[in-house]
Structures are given as C-alpha cells and as structure tokens.
TrEMBL record:
InterPro entries from the UniProt entry: GGT-like_enzyme (IPR052896), GGT_ssub_C (IPR043137), Ntn_hydrolases_N (IPR029055)
Molecular-function GO term, any one: transferase activity
Transmembrane stretches, start-end: none
Lineage summary: Bacteria, Bacillati, Bacillota, Bacilli, Bacillales
Gene3D superfamilies named among the record's database cross-references: 1.10.246.230, 3.60.20.40
Keywords, ordered alphabetically: Transferase
Pfam family, one: G_glu_transpept
Protein name per its UniProtKB record: Gamma-glutamyltransferase 2. Threonine peptidase. MEROPS family T03
Length: 536
C-alpha cells in the first residue's frame, strides 16, 4: 500500500500516525498510553495489549469490563495465533427453564443472559504464553487509575449518561443496586471531565494480577460471583467458573486482492466479514464513490449476514462447515444472486453432497489485534457487590428455538459479535485492524479492508470514510456525510436508506499497518470515539 492516500472528497479528522519502535491504538488515550508504557519497560506487543485492555475496563466501562469476553489474533515470530476467550452459558441453564420464567426470547438484563466471563482468563493466557512482563506489572496502570480516578472523556460520558437513563427505567430490582452504587454514585452519572474511581475494581485487578486470574475462577472472587448469582436466581455457579479455560484456535482467512484477511473462527462472527469479501473479490471496483460499488457491497453483506444468522454458533454445533461457507464455489453462487436491484436477504445452502478494540505493535515485529466487550454497553446491569465486576449479557444472543443452530444450551458458547481482524501478505504480517460495535463489526471490517486494498486509502482515511450499516431486510443506515447523490441512487435501486446523525452507531476502529520492507508502522484511530495512538 502507498503511504499517501489517493484524493478523497471527505476530510480526515486526523493524520496517519507514523512510528518505528512501537504503537498502540485504542479508543481512549490513557489506555493507549498504558500500552506504550509497557513497550518502554521492555515488554512486547502482547504486554502492551493486555495493559491497554485492562485499562479500558476502567476508563471505558461503558463498553467493556472485567466480567466480559475477549478475542485476540497474535502475530509472534512469523506465525499468527488465535485466542477465543469467550465463556459458555452456565451448565444448568436451558430453554425450558428460561421459558418457565416467562420469557419467549433471551432477556437483555439480569442473570439469565450472563455467561462465564472470559476476559480475565484471556489476559492470563496471553501473558503466560507470549508476554515478557508479569501480569502484576502489566495491570498496574489500570489499578492506579481505578483506585485514584480518571477524568471522563467526551464519548464515554455520552454513553455513560445514555446507559444510566436506560438502567433507571429497566433495572429496578434490588439486584441492580451495586451497579448504581458503582457507576452512578450519589445517584448521578459522571459528566465530561468529572473524576470517577472504583477502589473495588482496583482490588479485583490486584487479585487477578497476583494470581494470574486464578482468583477470578476458583478463589474469593469466584465465590462472591457465585453467591451473588445464587442469591438472585442466577444459573452461574462456582463450578461453571472453575471449569473455564480460554481456547487457542486456528484463525480462518480468505485471500482478497493478494492479501490474506484473518478472523477468529466461530463462535465469532468474523466469518460474516470473510464471506462478504469472498463474494466481493469476484468483482472489479474502479472507484469508491460509485453507486455500483456501494450496491454490490451492501448486497454481499446482506447475503453474508443471512448465512451468519442461519448457521453461526459454536463451531461444533454448526450444521455446515467453515470451509463450505468460505469455498470459492459457494461464493460464486452467492455472487451470482446479486442483481441490479436490492434483494431480500435469504440464507443459502453451502453444504455440497460491544465493545472495545485495540491494536498493538512492537519493534520486534510482534503485533496484536484484541477486542473485549460486555456486549450491550455496561452489560447485564449487574455488578458483583464489593468487586466492581460488571457482568456481561452475552447470552442475549442465544435463540430459544430448539431447532436453531444457536439455540440455548448449558455449557454452549453463543454466536459472538466481537471480532479482531488481521492482514498478512506473502506470509508476512501487515497488521491488526478492527471495528467494534455489535453487528456493525463485520460490516466495518469489510469496509475498511476495501478502503485500503481496493481504494488505496491509508489507515486513518480508511477509518474516517463515511460508513453504512445493514439493519434488516433492505434497510441500511448511512452517516450524515455519506454522499447524498449516491444515497438517492441507492433508493432508486430499492434500498431503504436512512441517514443517521449519531456516528457512534457506526462502529469504532483502530488500524496498524506495518511496511514489511522497512518495518515502519502506520496507524489510524477512531474519530467516532475518544481515539488515540501512542507511539515512539
């Protein structure tokens, strides 16, 4: 990729950051700085990523926390590794038990959607296998700010206010009191520049650091979590926590324009991004700002999502294989279904007879693509009293239809929205990329990949470009600076186009691109958040 982007009719919010020794890109400045501190202490990209991830549980609790899940793609010594640190549903839960409580679909709040938190185990697994520094050292910045406080940044303040207002209306049971005590002390949420601290959060991080997360899964923290669950009719038990181990997995990929695009295999939805790119690689795109380009992108994404919603879940429960979904034969079949007008998305038959995202790189060439999330903002609305642990509501994605591949079962991992991405070329690392934001994530992945590989935009401009998002049926949301004449032309093609002023709904991304010849790092961060890159 050229280091200077082609002419683009939209002004980038920032310039691409360029450095040689190391780089950390996150959605919050203190998190990026925490990662850089680890690099300067002699740590590697893995240490930097863990430090930034732990810090984000403190300074961006609106999107992730200690009680959430994580995924990582790690390039170490010329090899790409995948880590799935998502947790399963409690062993004792079932569709029947949930329906007996009066639910026809998985609720968003309370203990029913709470799954085993995987993030602390993920930090420990990464540190043990690839880190240079101790977890005590790596988590120290997060511990400091949790104990002493940090000044809330603008995007986080907006999301905090929004969540607090929703929880006041939806979370009225006494089991939610600890959330309000923790995140809305004295009955109010923090605003821009207000200082927020959580000594309980700091102590929990200390215990995780001292014990390499064992305390979280089989010690005092686990006991507190299990007791809180039992006292409030939850299904999560001490046995569920003790049985948990993060899983090292083989990343999956497709080749697009000579680059290999890598994602975590299911239960993550990275396969949706790869499916869309696999369809799109059969077309030639001459310019970005083209009606034909957007139409084909949108149609391919709908087809990929239709398959994702029909088949994606924990891989061993899928009725079709990843290889079948990503085969060139199936991609050609799906590509042939794209016509001149918008279509209703339907799953095909491939079988042949959150969130916070961060990227880190060091001077040795090691690179990490990392993502963690509580799913919906703060998650379930539950905080384990005395710990600062906000519990995720990832189980909300399960289906209560027993015939669906992603049906709820005890001990099963659900369809997961959070996905890290990575690029390689000719078996050399190019770098990590990601766009967080629920079901926007694979759509953001496909868009920024195409921006860089088809249209030669640098990382920062690739992120700044206006985005679109498929919602359902023929409905797409587009950002306010999306080209008006193209939006009108897409309407004439049958797409239902709605302009949305809230940019936060279109995902928040980070990119680090490494020049394989010089080792120079080019970074882009997100203007839709309090994005920041720390480098040297």
């Amino acid at each position: 990729m050229k280091t200077d982007h082609l002419y683009y009719p939209y002004h980038s919010q920032r310039t691409t950051t360029i450095a040689r020794q190391g780089m950390v890109a996150t959605s919050q400045p203190l998190a990026a700085q925490a990662g850089l501190d680890m690099l300067k202490k002699g740590g590697n990209a893995v240490d930097a990523a863990i430090a930034a991830a732990a810090m984000l549980t403190v300074v961006e609790p609106t999107s992730n926390g200690i009680g959430g899940d994580a995924f990582a793609l790690v390039w170490i010594k010329d090899k790409l590794y995948g880590l799935n640190a998502s947790g399963p549903a409690p062993a004792s839960i079932s569709i029947e038990k949930v329906k007996q409580q009066g639910h026809e679909e998985m609720p968003l709040h309370g203990f029913i959607p709470v799954t085993v938190p995987g993030a602390p185990g993920g930090w420990a697994a990464l540190s043990k296998r690839f880190g240079k520094l101790s977890l005590v050292d790596v988590l120290q910045p997060a511990i400091y700010y949790a104990e002493n406080g940090f000044a809330v940044t603008p995007t986080v303040a907006k999301l905090w206010e929004r969540a607090c207002k929703k929880f006041r209306a939806a979370c009225t049971d006494t089991m939610y009191n600890a959330w309000f005590d923790t995140f809305a002390p004295n009955g109010d949420y923090p605003g821009i520049g207000d200082v927020w601290k959580s000594p309980d959060h700091a102590e929990t991080l200390r215990q995780i650091a001292r014990t390499d997360a064992k305390e979280f899964y089989s010690g005092e923290l686990a006991a507190k979590l299990a007791e809180f669950s039992a006292d409030n009719g939850g299904f999560l038990t001490a046995d569920d926590l003790a049985a948990y181990e993060p899983e090292w997995v083989e990343p999956i990929s497709v080749n697009y324009r000579g680059y290999d695009v890598w994602e975590i295999p299911p239960n993550g939805q990275g396969l949706v991004a790869l499916s869309a790119l696999n369809i799109l690689k059969g077309f030639t795109f001459h310019e970005k700002e083209s009606i034909d380009t957007y139409h084909k992108q949108m149609e391919a994404m709908k087809l990929a999502f239709a398959d994702g919603h029909a088949y994606l879940t924990e891989e061993k429960h899928m009725p079709v294989t990843v290889e079948e979904l990503l085969s060139d034969t199936y991609a050609a079949q799906r590509r042939a279904q794209i016509g001149e007008l918008a279509s209703e998305p339907e799953a095909g038959e491939p079988k042949q007879g959150g969130t916070v995202y961060l990227a880190a790189a060091d001077h040795e060439g090691n690179m990490v693509s990392f993502i963690q999330s509580n799913y919906h903002g703060f998650g379930s609305g539950l905080v384990v009293p005395g710990t600062g642990i906000a519990l995720q509501n990832r189980g909300h994605n399960f289906s209560l239809d027993p015939a669906h591949p992603n049906s709820l079962q005890g001990g099963k991992k659900t369809f997961h929205t959070i996905i890290p991405g990575f690029l390689t070329k000719d078996k050399q690392a190019i770098g990590p990329f990601g766009v967080m934001g629920g079901f926007m994530q694979p759509q953001g992945h496909a868009q920024v990949v195409m921006n860089m590989l088809d249209f030669n935009l640098n990382p920062q401009t690739a992120l700044d470009a206006p985005r679109w998002q498929w919602i359902q049926g023929k409905t797409f949301h587009v950002e306010a600076d999306f080209p008006k004449h193209i939006a009108e032309a897409l309407l004439r093609k049958g797409h239902h186009i709605e302009v949305k002023a809230d940019r936060s709904a279109f995902g928040r991304g980070q990119i680090i691109w490494r020049d394989p010849e010089t080792g120079t790092l080019y970074g882009g961060t997100e203007a839709r958040a309090d994005g920041s890159i720390a480098s040297y």
